[in-house]
Amino acid sequence: MSAKRILIVDNEAKMRRILELSLKAMGHIVSEAADGAAALSIVEKQAVDLVLTDLRMPGMDGIALLAVLRERGMDVPVIVMTAYGTIETAVEAMKLGAVDYIIRPFEMETVEMAVTRALAMQAVQRENSFLREEVSRGWGAFVGTSAAMQSLYELIRQVASTRSNAFIVGDTGTGKELVARAIHEASGRTGLFVPINCAAIPAELLESELFGHVKGAFTGAVRDRVGKCELASTGTIFLDEITEMPANLQVKLLRVLQEGCIERLGANGTVPVDLRVVSATNRDLQQAVESGALRRDLYFRLNVVRIDVPGLRDRRGDIALLANHFLRKHALELGRAVPSLDSHVLQRLEAYEWPGNVRELENIMERAVVLCRGEEITLAHLPVELVHQPPSRSAPPVTLVDNEGSLNLKAQVEELECRLIKSALARSANNKAAAARLLGISERTLWYKLKTYKVES
């Protein structure tokens, strides 16, 4: 279990010291308060994972503290300590929401067990809450046997076995989140996989979503909130469309990666986290860095291993397999027999450019299942734009330089190389990563050659 911040509340300094030494030996971060009022002040200013409080104290006692915490919507777990003669008060505390109680005098092993149990219970509650939100989204599965996909599978296996951050690059609809989930599932990390789309959340709310906040941090913050980074500790956080994250938050994310801790919005203290970050974008990474959409220092932190997800037009051999997979999926969901694909339909699917990639193919197959009343999907079940698609926009075949021209080998090679680059850019809709894959070179090499040959990109 990663280090947690625990608040000890007891009017006896000696007892606070004994508990502090024991909890620090367990690896936790400890704060102290001599009464309920002081404890409440601490909880309001910084994130606390657990409160360990005596029941009988001058001023605001443990019962009053617990009541105020619940009244103000602070769901921090509380363990109460009580003398044998006041066990009825302990029962009252449990009714108010205390997670456990310890009868004094006690052995330190009893305290350690209660603390470990309470923190584990809190982690399970957070996980269950998160998984309830995730369960409807499904986990999906890879479908594809093409050479491009086999290379992707191997790269996922290699990356998953390390602690390195990864950057996933690919067009919209290629399955970048699926790749990120696969990396997490194969990693052996015990925490959650927590996805967050940086482009889908308003900038003014993204900081709270990432790092959490304490009650009263801003208008509408009626209770403490655990951020996605804290939730993903010991697991993986997936930052989709990272290039849409505001610059000020990129700075804070960089600090989290450097220092291994987060600071909730409105809090004074920090919370240690053990994060593995997988990021993704459908933008050209080099251009994003050059334009300032992605900080260069953050880029180097995140882009330890780059994973390029092939577009559907780069893995046409998988189209029939994917189409039948989606037909079966949606037919079963609708309680219908699984239809087959007419050969003309398959020809159209394999000739299409697929600007929306796998996501577009699934939508078209779902539409076909809804419209189909027979046993076969025909052209009548496809969208008009796919049936009457224009000729492929791919560049014309590359030919050698005229034999009667210059015999200078260097000039001939450069001319052919330039044509190949232009052809690859045309076929990949000017996507540099995809063009580099078609050419069999690295994206860095491609950028160098674009500059050398002054090819407009």
TrEMBL record:
Residues 142-370 form the Sigma-54 factor interaction domain. Keywords: ATP-binding, Nucleotide-binding, Phosphoprotein, Transcription, Transcription regulation. The keyword Phosphoprotein applies. InterPro entries: AAA+_ATPase, AAA_lid_NorR, CheY-like_superfamily, Homeodomain-like_sf, HTH_Fis, P-loop_NTPase, Sig_transdc_resp-reg_receiver, Sigma_54_int. PROSITE patterns: RESPONSE_REGULATORY, SIGMA54_INTERACT_3, SIGMA54_INTERACT_4. Residues 5-119 form the Response regulatory domain. It comes from Rhodanobacter hydrolyticus. It comes from the Bacteria. PANTHER family: TRANSCRIPTIONAL REGULATORY PROTEIN (PTHR32071). The modification 4-aspartylphosphate is found at D54. Pfam families: AAA_lid_14 (PF25601), HTH_8 (PF02954), Response_reg (PF00072), Sigma54_activat (PF00158). Signal peptide: none annotated. The keyword Transferase does not apply. This is Sigma-54-dependent Fis family transcriptional regulator.
